[in-house]
Design brief:
3 helices, about 35% helix, two-stranded antiparallel ribbon, about 100 residues, alpha+beta, 5 strands
Length: about 100
Amino acid sequence: MRSAAAKRSICCRPSIRAIRERFATIHANSAAQALSRLTTCVLQSGVELPYRAIRSQIAETLNLIVHLERRHGRRFVAEILAIAGYDPTEDQYQLRLLFERGRS
């Protein structure tokens, strides 16, 4: 019989997939939403860390978020965000937009 934490972590497996230890994929509609979904998956896994500690660890671990979109069967880079840190008092990631498709 599986524990409740194991069942919760299974629901995140389709959303996150590690690739060669240096890259991972997560399904989201934007780079910022990917950070939010990653936080949610960690919370659902049963890891007993405070919410802000999880977000802080994510900010310390990740450098870039690259958002890919698919249109007409082709994938392209839509957005690249750099993660500069996390401000626990404001509960916000410090993000820097490096690239956005269609922006000059």
